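Page 47, continued from p. 46.
Same chain as before, 210 aa.
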Amino acid sequence: MVPVLAMTEEYSVSEFLQQAMQSAPALLVMVCLLAAVESLVVIGLLVPGMAGLVALTLAAAAAGVSPFWWWLAGALGAIAGDGISFHIGRFSRQGLHQWPVLKDHPQWLERGYRFFHDYGVVSIAIGRFVGPLRPLIPAIAAVCDMPAVRFWWVNIFSGCAWAAAWLLPVYWLGKEALQHISGPRMLLIFAVVCVLAFVVSSLLARRSKS
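Result:
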């Protein structure tokens, strides 16, 4: 009886995941959450979000999710993640330096402060495209007393631009590939792209820790 139950539970989880990867609403929720999590202060340094975003975007192309809604969900997640990080920075202030991970790696904050002082408000937009700095700049901007209204204007604009620049090209490439490739070859390409994205994001994370 126990083995049968175990097999049933395993099958149910597998079936649930398979259905989720084919469901437009589920995929939209997942990309929104992942875009938010990888933008959160510190957490974004530890989560290889690029690989997950590539995988979800390819799944969205296969499931026929509207590119507009895909872009919007990714943009909202990125905007929310940076917004939460900004207000965490406002609440923590100089206590940000005492966070265990940042206390052990002071060079992360030093690099972020230097980048912010060099580029000012524009660093919010540029930093969104620089992996190791992305989860830190909003919190640093808050610690440096950037007005919230100014931050949110740049945050919204750059979040929309980031989603268009990162998610839509992968979506269209996946859509185009689906028209010419099917079956095992498509699965192989899907796996290779996900592995490459994971390797690149891991290398960026390792570089940020050095």
